[in-house]
Amino acid sequence: MAFFDKLTETINNTSKKAKDYSDISALNGQISAQQGIINGCYTEIGRAYYEANRENAEDPFAESMQKIEAAKETILSLQRQILAIKGLKVCENCGNQIPVDAAFCPSCGARAAVEQPAEPEPETPAPDVPKTCPSCGAELPPDAMFCTNCGHKMEQEAPARAAWVNADTPPQNS
User: Fold this and answer.
1) Does some domain include residue 11?
2) pTM above the 0.70 mark?
3) 163 in a domain, yes or no?
4) Which helix H or strand E contains 131, and what residues bound it?
């Protein structure tokens, strides 16, 4: 009978441990729920503080507020890029998304701003193409800073940089 007594005791201990683990898990779940409530309140307080003080440059959290503003601007820019890819824009009156070529918003009827296509930037001459002086018309070497004929100062164009200049290695050809 000692065997059955030992077996009964082991089963009772195992059952108690399982119940204890179950109770601990339930309590941890309740703790987690309360921490969620606290974090939600912190977020609400932080958002209210931010809205009330975001223009105050002397605020001790001004740097963090500037980061928030910069992140908001980045998000807005990225959202505009997504809309452009989808061929959409936002109605300035009601905020609905409308086709980019729409003259009027189908939701509120407001006249939609017509976006003018960006003019392409003038192409810069190839490096081996000689320059022409705008003052006297003399042909000059591509890197001339002044006209050798009349001394006119030539406008300097920003040198073209390779796309990978700041990268550790140039792009691989595939």
Assistant:
1) no
2) no
3) no
4) strand 131-132
